[in-house]
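Appendix B. Chain record.
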Amino acid sequence: MKKVIIFFLLCLIIPSVFAIEIITKDTLNREETLIAKFSGNFIKAPSQEDISIYRGHIRIPAETYVTKIGGEYHLYSLLSGKQSGNYTLMISNVKYSSGGQIYEQDISKNFTIND
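Structure tokens predicted for this chain:
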């Protein structure tokens, strides 16, 4: 009986903790392609205009492409010509639901480009 109650509570808690998830490699090579997968309970689907790449606090020009496969969004962007260093992938104005609440915020994921 206790196991059933614990399982039920975990099923309620886990979706609210993992509302939006971005999966990508933390370290990429200079000529590699950035590939990211993000999933969640989106109300407003993220588009190419919502996605930016920053080096430090400076937005850098990057061609990004977004496609939806199943319930997940996949992004890719060419990194050729980018300097090595720390970067941030930013998805702006993400509107999603979690735990019965609706949220709108920016979601980011840090990554590094090596030589």
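Further analysis of this model is presented in Appendix C.
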